[in-house]
Description:
- The chain has a domain at about 1-75 and about 175-240 and about 385-430: FAD/NAD(P)-binding domain, CATH 3.50.50.60.
- Helix content is about 35%, strand content about 25%.
- The protein contains 11 helices and 20 strands.
- Helix 2 packs parallel to helix 6.
Amino acid sequence: MRAIPAVIFLLYGLNQYARQNLVRSNKYDVIVIGAGIIGLSTAMKLLEMHPRLKLAVVEKDEKEGTQQSGHNSGVIHSGIYYKPGSFKAEFCVTGRASMTRFCEENEIPVWTCGKLVVANDAAGEKRLQTLKERGTANQVEGLRLVDQDEIADIEPHVVARKALHAPGTGIVDYRNVTAAYADRVRAAGGEIFFNTELNGSKVVSGTTVLNTTSGDYETASVINCAGLHSDLVAETMGVNTGLRIIPFRGEYYKLRKESEYLVKGLIYPVPDPAFPFLGVHLTRTMKGWVEAGPNAVLATKREGYRKRDFSLSDFLRTITFPGFWKMGIREWKTGVWEINRSLRKSVFLNSLQQLVPELTRSDLGGTGSGVRAQAVDRAGNLVDDFRIEESSGAIHVLNAPSPGATSSLVIGDYIAAMATKNFSLGPAAPTPAG
Ligand SMILES: Cc1cc2nc3c(=O)[nH]c(=O)nc-3n(C[C@H](O)[C@H](O)[C@H](O)COP(=O)(O)OP(=O)(O)OC[C@H]3O[C@@H](n4cnc5c(N)ncnc54)[C@H](O)[C@@H]3O)c2cc1C
């Protein structure tokens, strides 16, 4: 009988110890929401700058890079498309160099296969010239307009009047890059919690309490890198950004193995300046296949990788946003054209034949897709550049389109520097040379 109070006392003590340690272990200096390529790069760079930082990444999925970072075209862009002076231009050109170096240092296979942007009519040739000027202003190396003979040397199955050759463009499997960032985060003392979805947030005595599916986490500062959910996460934190993420599915075919010889590297049509991400292309990948696509069709679910995927709440969020209708009224013809191409393989094939006329229906094999997180403002404008904003105790990555993966190391540096300043993290440690 005398043992009972001792047991109760022991259990009480154990309970108190567990609670205290649980609370202590769930307190962080910085929490990053989202283990995509940008969230992890940011976490990695922050830990490089502040080795003593207590940092965690919370991710709703079971592993890193499951969304945009694991479902992209795998191109290390060189920076020809982007308006000089924009974040895209700045981040991409330095991003390409740092990405290539990171991959070499971490033994991640990369191949600098070069890209050919082709034009088949006078209007296209004119746009190629503008592209060349942009690329040159962005200091893209080795950029050259090439004629039919040279086109045949670079891509023997392309038929075009003129093309722009960007020899520095490469390919990589960004799933490997994202996994390497995650390893670096852990090695530097950061923690990554998977299957942990942010559901709510509140500020208690200057500390942010994040409510997740794995319990509460306390932090001084938050970095929202939630990709397709970045607008929702910002709202959860009480920030009205005036933007909405409209998800666009990019569908592609894989060329059959026996048809892959038709594509040596990367073959792109000259883009429409208003919609640079439209226009299907032929892309050799490091995943072991050649992709034909992707297109861009409205997805009725944020992570709607299949045509039949539907989420009532996501769909309602899209259609109740005034900017969606303004965009729709302005661009309905493009939208109808994209839906037509999505539904009819012959139309998709026809677009590809503008690049490689030899392609036939039987060359197109299996299918795949990715979903782009495109921020749209209330006036219906598609946000073209990267958009990274601050709120009290938080930084939000609100638009991270292509070339987001190429630029991820530079974006990580940018956000880490922003956090150092805004979150009063103290002076950054000197960075290693190179
Ligand atoms: C079809 C397609 C092709 C592309 N091609 C290229 C290319 O060739 N080259 C290039 O440079 N770029 C390309 N991009 C762009 C590039 O992939 C993106 O810029 C980049 O992946 C964005 O990374 P992210 O970390 O912001 O987003 P994501 O990879 O989407 O990561 C966001 C993460 O946040 C998590 N998350 C969301 N909400 C929550 C929550 N509430 N709680 C916890 N976790 C949450 C998600 O699960 C996800 O893992 C392409 C994109 C697409 C879609």
